[in-house]
User: What shape does this take?
Amino acid sequence: MFSKKIVKNLSNASWIRAMFEQGEKLRKIHGEENVFDFTLGNPDPEPPLKVKETLIELVSGNKKGLHRYMNNAGFIDVREKIAHQINKEIEAQLTSKNIIMTCGAAGGLNVILKALLNPLEEVIIFAPYFVEYNFYIDNHGGKSVVVNTDANTFQPDLDLFKKNINKNTKAIILNSPNNPTGVVYKEEILIGMSNVIKEAEKEY
Assistant: This one.
């Protein structure tokens, strides 16, 4: 018999996945060219030929140790290249030690929330938000606190944000460009949010 929590989660299974499955059914009925998929964010273009060739080369090659377990944070050479690219783009001082590879954003968020959350500690998310955040937070005993954004611009309201921070707040999920709105949070909003967080850190 499954746990009550799993049964509840299955009954509230991913809306996005359900929409994707519905889209697949509709494509078979109406034709692929008549149904537009805005669910999973699947890329339209196929990977470049060089990517495919490199994958074939790696799989069929004789490089020793390629298919063994790696460091928990991912291959060091890959992390070094990513750190180098970020440093070029934003003039940071990152090294491979600052980079952790995960199986997508969902995997990364679950790892982070598991590391941070104690039971019933709160995570602030800004609406509209990616609906799976609720599951990720609940997976690790946390509580979602939804803070609405401006109805016209979808920019966070700093006063409302401040009102929702309390002694139980453990994390804030900041998603910019936002999913699903596509909105990029303004620089002054991000600076304001940083100031609110610093004040809350002093208080709590």
Observations:
- Helices lie at 4-11, 15-30, 49-60, 76-90, 104-116, 133-139, 158-163, 187-203.
- DSSP finds eight helices and three strands in the chain.
- The first strand starts at residue 122 and ends at 127.
- The chain has three domains: 1-42, 67-101, 103-204.
